Amino acid sequence: MINIYADSRELCLAAAELFTSQAVAAIDKKGAFRVALSGGSTPRQLYEELAKPFWRDRINWEKVLIFWGDERHVPAGDALSNQNMTREALLDHIPIPADNIFPVPFTESPAAAASQYEATLHKCFPTLPVFDLVLLGLGKDGHTASLFPGNKALTEKTRWVCSSRPLSGGPDRVTLTYPVINQAATICFLVTGTDKAGIVREIIEGHASAVPYPAEKICPVNGQLIWLLDQAAAACLESSK
Ligand code: 6PG
Prior knowledge:
By secondary structure, this protein is α/β, with parallel strands linked by helices. It contains seven helices and nine strands; from the N terminus they run βαβααββααβββαβαβ. The longest helix has 23 residues, at 8-30. The chain is globular, with a radius of gyration of 17 Å. The two termini are 17 Å apart. The model has no long low-confidence stretch (mean pLDDT 96). It binds 6-phosphogluconic acid. 6-phosphogluconic acid (6PG) binds next to helix 2. 6-phosphogluconic acid is lined by residues 38-42, 70, 82, 137-139, 143-146.
């Protein structure tokens, strides 16, 4: 499913409605809503929106369990931390119990942090995790979460969490792997801006390279894949012309 919105504001409102309706439905059906959040500027806008009373008050946050699809290997309070961004934008403004929040730990190495986070997931999920919702951003190089082109994490078939290194430099990362992400009931890409139009077209409508972009291998096993795009990010799509 591909939904295109006039601008990032309209996309943000649609994403907030999706998040809220999915949370209410999961809590009604199973008593909990397990979501893996993304870093990035577009997801941040969504988190800031969800903190507003209109959305905040529709969700029983006591039943929401917050995880991250990926994290930078930095201390929790670091400006580069996805956890820090999410706390500033959302978690510090909603009545969610601290025990419902499962941040990626900052430890002696990215590999150790990945192992610890995998152990955390094993405590929360009896078998391969099935998140109700996984939010994803998209990089211009076709990365998503912290699954970067050429990275060994792309070939991981059994681990739930592993470390990775961005091509553009910056801190090492910890990321959920395809086996976990693709199990989710709903996977939702949030993509805005003209700088993403080219990669969006290549991923959705195809490209000449024999090597798939990391985001192309996001393919739900049993769930649904949703693209929320603003018109700028969708500008190169044949289907949007
Ligand atoms: C991160 C994200 C990463 C991000 C994309 C898009 O930790 O940075 O997980 O995958 O979502 O790079 O980021 P923007 O939405 O800011 O372009």
